[in-house]
Specification:
The protein has 135 residues and is of the alpha/beta class. It has helices spanning 13-24, 78-85, 124-129; strands spanning 5-10, 29-32, 35-39, 44-49, 70-74, 92-98, 103-109, 115-121. A hairpin with a 5-residue loop joins strand 7 (103-109) and strand 8 (115-121).
Length: 135
């Protein structure tokens, strides 16, 4: 089994796609006005409209209701990303902080409130763990 995609449901696909394009530097591929994907080297972030929820079962997903998942992006330099994003991110959850498990992390929320973690491994163990992961 291979995790290939995470899908986020939103009331405003264009707004969320623009946010993630800016954060990741990737350009979205639009299938319909209700669905777009941002493909990275290691996985895909899919963004779907609440209008698509009925295809999975009425009420099965809800926009802006996430408080349990964190979307995580491995970056070359989290401190540089903080400087780059600071002018247009209204508030950060945490500024770059070195975590006990060896990653330097920056947390922010997307426009729907989903936590986004940008991180760079900084300890020898963390660097080794992510050495083969594409960025």
């Amino acid at each position: 089994m291979n995790l290939v995609s995470v899908r986020v449901i939103t009331d405003d696909v264009a707004r969320l796609v623009a946010f993630y394009e800016r954060v990741t530097g990737a350009s979205a591929t639009w299938s319909t006005p209700d669905f777009a994907e941002l493909v990275t080297m290691s996985g895909t972030l899919a963004i779907g409209s609440t209008r698509t929820v009925g295809l999975f079962g009425a009420g099965s997903a809800e926009s802006g209701a996430n408080r349990s998942a964190i979307l995580e992006f491995l970056v070359d330099d989290v401190d540089a990303e903080f400087v780059r994003l600071r002018p247009w991110v209204p508030a950060f959850v945490t500024e770059p902080t070195t975590m006990p498990w060896g990653n330097r992390a920056l947390l922010l929320r997307d426009p729907d409130g989903t936590l986004v973690n940008l991180f760079t491994p900084v300890t020898e163990e963390a660097v080794a763990k992510f050495a083969a992961t594409p960025r």
